[in-house]
Write a structure and sequence with these properties.
Belongs to the 6-phosphogluconate dehydrogenase family. The chain has 297 residues and is an alpha/beta fold. The chain contains 13 helices and 7 strands. It folds into 2 domains: 156 residues, Rossmann fold; 102 residues, N-(1-d-carboxylethyl)-l-norvaline Dehydrogenase, domain 2, CATH 1.10.1040.10. A 7-stranded mixed sheet has the order 2-1-3-4-5-6-7, sandwiched between helices. Helix 1 links the parallel strand 1 and strand 2.
Length: 297
């Protein structure tokens, strides 16, 4: 099958390679001349045979919006756009409506797999009409992991459902990573434990907490047993925040996901104002000692 692919970053580049290995014809566009196959979106549209399918794999937000607006100007009736980035699900309906004015179909696709997707396959969560999804199943089947389709692919519902599912997926991922990190810290604090890495390695088989994330932490600890080369500063790319916001809207309690999001905020503070206030309060009401910054700094 022929596919246009916009965005050849870490994931997009590997997706192009996996699809080409699966004998699909992939024509990629990226602003970086060293990786692009065509000079611009117009060139991409001209290189594809109608009805055309274009997969957008760029950062969420304004870049995605600009790309979809650009595609609406160069594609036409019967063509199809897939947004495979981490867009917020609420942006999908406006994008679908914009493209529908030109007779262009739209699918939103949540994609999980990171840099390992090239060899392991990508978990896919898609939203769109049955007809549109059926048109591009050969692409989805090549990108997903081997095995039964339902174990790596879901047509979650209409437009918006794919990105909603991916948003919740990433919220769960936040909580899992925090739990694994807390477990590592507790193991490392106990002198009885000779090697936290060995414990995490042992958890890779036969235990109820085994997972790919757990195996990746075992790998990271083997490469750097004290994690001495890594700072604890952790960014969030938006999905965790959106998950908590949607949980509030739907009145669904998600304390684990919320706590993991706030833990990321905490990681960015060199000296917590909250804990400084707590120390000051203990000193005020109980005369408890505080550690003061010296005049020399």
């Amino acid at each position: 099958m022929q596919l246009g692919l916009v965005g050849l970053g870490k994931m997009g580049f590997n997706m192009r390679e996996r699809l080409r290995e699966g004998e699909h014809e992939v024509i990629g566009y990226d602003p970086r001349p060293e990786v692009t196959d065509v000079p611009d979106l117009e060139g991409l549209a001209a290189a594809l045979t109608a009805p055309r399918v274009v997969w957008v794999m760029v950062p969420s937000g304004e870049v995605t919006n600009t790309t979809i607006v650009g595609l609406s100007k160069v594609l036409g009736t019967g063509d199809l756009v897939i947004d495979g980035g981490n867009s917020r699900y609420s942006e999908d309906s406006p994008h679908a409506a914009l493209l529908a004015e030109k007779g262009i179909g739209f699918i939103d696709a949540g994609v999980s797999g990171g840099i390992w997707g090239l060899t392991e396959g990508y978990g896919l969560m898609v939203g769109g009409s049955d007809d549109d999804v059926a048109k591009v199943m050969p692409i989805f089947d090549t990108l997903r992991p081997p095995g039964p389709r339902e174990d790596g692919f879901v047509h979650a519902g209409p437009v918006g459902a794919g990105h909603f599912a991916k948003m919740v997926h990433n919220g769960v991922e936040y909580a899992m990573m925090t739990a694994y990190g807390e477990g590592y810290e507790l193991l490392a604090a106990e002198d009885l434990i000779k090697s936290p890495q060995a414990v995490y390695q042992a958890w890779s088989n036969g235990t109820v907490v085994r997972s790919w994330l757990q195996q990746l932490l075992a790998k990271a600890l083997k490469e750097d047993p004290q994690l001495a080369e890594i700072k604890g500063y952790t960014e969030d790319s938006g999905e965790g925040r959106w998950t908590v916001e949607e949980a509030i809207r739907l009145r669904v309690p998600v304390p684990g996901i919320a706590a993991s999001l706030f833990a990321r905020f905490l990681s960015r503070q060199e000296d917590s104002p909250t804990m400084k206030a707590v120390a000051a309060l203990r000193n005020q009401f109980g005369g408890h000692a505080v550690q003061r910054i010296s005049e020399s700094g």
